[in-house]
Amino acid sequence: MTLRSDTAAALYAEVAAAQSEWKLPSITAGVVRDGALVWTGARGQFATADGGSPGPERQYRIGSITKTLTAVLVMQARDDGLLALNDAVGKHLPGIAFGELTIRHLLSHSGGMNAEPEGPWWERNPGVSFEALAAAMNESQAAGVPDRRYHYSNLGYGLLGEIVSRLRGAPWTELVRDRILSPLEMRRTTYFPQDPAAQGFSVHPFSGRLAEEPAYDSGAMAPAGQLWSTIEDLAKYACFWIDPVPEVLSRDSVEEMATPASADPREALNAAYGLGLRLQADDPYLFVGHTGSMPGFVAGLFVDRVRRIGGVALANATYGKCASVPLDLMRVLIKHEPWLPQEWVPEPELAQGEELLGHWYWGNTPVTISVCGGILQMSGAFTSRFSPLGVDLYQGRDGYVAGERLRVMRDGGQITHLDLATFVLTRTPYGR
User: Edge-to-edge strands of the sheet including 271-273?
Assistant: First the structure.
């Protein structure tokens, strides 16, 4: 699991360059591969005002990476039948402004809600109660209409945190601890900082001197950006997104979160947003994770779920290159130690579907059904994997037919054709 020395040197050079170029008082970073933290590196002499050193055990504020934990709580509630993603927000928060928006809108930042709550800049002021937050909300401040475009909203995640708190009958912070942090053994991720913790700084643009930044309790906005964590804990969290822990969230729900739900049209070809996750293309792969910033801190966590790698970074500066460092670290890792695909092994016999294997035709266009990883896979005119739903019934998992039904049609027990969302597939062109 250890990295070659030249790989480690290249990773450290990336961190050192970011610290120097962006004037970061300190930065700490890590790389995960195949379920383990395989490298950490730190740079800078000012993790604290008295010159504390950065390291994998020192806490930094993670900002909006917090949103991913709030999104996990929402998906847990959905999977437990407590809510539906298409529920109106007002169903769970009666009388709230923007109550006609759906939970899905808030998760994906696609509802047109204003980015920040009304009142003083919430990140640099003591937080307020949810009642005060809700009372100040005003639909006239909307940034747009629902489903028109992607528009990031911190405010929306304050509402999501309150929804799961009411549904579970427990404070948001307790739900995060009990339902996510404890199962993942993230013992150094906390609501308030615990020593050793970094001091947040801003860097004066002309003098180059440090000014301490405040770190208030965000109150009702905590679900959008309150938490503190370490490189070691974020590495565990990164591994969760590669290999989901069923006690926290199923693999299917993680895949749903990592599917594009909205995008800024200026970046749509390269970046998108899922359900609580940022998505960044690395053709033909996809980086999944989130960035974070709060006064005095910037952070980033991204993984490549296919190549089973990830990068995490934390720094104590209000502005600077830290959010993209995980992406750069993964690219450096792949460049020096190329990813090896999983070793091929013979496929096991399917519990059902063996008789579907082989060539089919949509009209006269070829379609092939084979097995990959124990799952039926269609290629050709339609490309998708299929999961069994029942006898002679399957559901598409990818591509154009994702979510659609594949039905095996029989006459006297013999297969006559396949019905894929009304498209007819036969063993010979046009069934002749």
Answer: 36-43, 27-33, 309-315, 297-304, 285-294, 278-282, 271-273
